[in-house]
Amino acid sequence: MRRERRQVLWTVQITLTHIGLIRVSIDVHDVKRQRDALDPICARVFEETASRKRLIKNRPELLTALDYLGPNDVLVIMKANHLAQSMIDGLDVLNQLFEQGVVVKVLEGIATGTHIERSSILDAGQEIAELRRSMLSWRIKTGLNPAKGRGSVGGRPRLIDDEKRAMILSRSEKGESIRAIAQSLGVSVGTVHNLFENMERVSRM
Question: How many CB atoms neighbour CB 84 within 10 A?
């Protein structure tokens, strides 16, 4: 049984065509390392400008790379955190890809390997991401209640009150982009973006 399983996995690895994905950020050294690692082993390499978004459907460059993948192709990245802004978010995106049936090969780091089936690292990444979102939601709520007691909600109350804040969070959880949320609520993209930045800052405290 084990011999048959090893043979199947080996066959998959041989037949898969590597398609690379590079995360382009201001760290030119890191971008060069990614290119040096992926260019020699990939039939084609796509480059995605660094994005804050975790949901795949809101990332057109990543979607373009996924559309290019054939049934016998594997998406190759250098590290899991190249799928997002952090390792935790990267593992979350890795889980999204796995759930969509995308085979992903990670060359270095905590998730090194070819992900063709559910694994402990994927399960752990999903649990950590869910825990982080729960903690962020809890910190926002506990921060708002004392502020309301003092008669202040912080920020710019003329633009973002409690009701709009709740609507922004709800729409974000449904996968809407920052631009779509801003347009629907009649506020600027910068206002919504600043709200998420403040949330991220609170989560790191």
Answer: 22
